[in-house]
UniProtKB/TrEMBL annotation:
Organism: Kribbella shirazensis
Pfam families for the chain: DoxX_2
Protein topology in the membrane: Multi-pass membrane protein
Keyword RNA-binding among UniProt keywords: no
Protein name: Putative membrane protein
TM helices/strands, residue ranges: 6-26, 47-67, 73-94, 101-120
Record's keyword terms, sorted: Membrane, Transmembrane, Transmembrane helix
GO cellular component: membrane
Cellular compartment(s): Membrane
Major localization class: membrane
Alphabetized InterPro entries for the sequence: DoxX (IPR032808)
Length: 127
């Protein structure tokens, strides 16, 4: 189970890092033309950059505390943050009637919930 939790956390971290860095460096006008990213035209550039920074921090929070063994309890806390982030993403895609994006986001939400449950419960880093 520990290996499955590491794999899920690593996959989530990779997705969040790629998405977050993209939001930080790609101009908002260009991002709005990308597939399933039309919602970016409806938000401010500052919000988009903030969301990118939150995603990058979430990616780091899913992996770095456990790898460095510095406050590993932050891993499930970061996973809960990712769950909340994915709930917001799902709601946004539902409002825009983007069914495929909702399904993908639901998968990420399930992975994050699994990591939170596993790291708070049976495979906790503390105890």
């Amino acid at each position: 189970m520990n290996l499955a939790l590491w794999i899920c956390a690593g996959l989530l971290a990779a997705v969040l890092l790629i998405g977050g860095v993209g939001k930080l460096i790609v101009p908002q006008q260009k991002m709005a033309t990308m597939h399933n990213a039309g919602w970016t035209a409806d938000v401010s550039a500052g919000f988009l950059k903030s969301l990118g920074a939150i995603e990058v921090l979430g990616a780091m929070g899913l992996v770095l505390p456990a790898v460095t063994d510095i406050a590993p309890v932050l891993v499930p806390v970061a996973a809960i943050g990712v769950v909340l982030l994915m709930v917001g993403a799902m709601l946004t895609h539902l409002r825009r009637h983007e069914a495929k994006a909702v399904v993908g986001t639901l998968v990420y939400l399930a992975l994050a919930a699994f990591v939170a449950w596993g790291r708070f419960g049976p495979e906790s880093f503390i105890g």
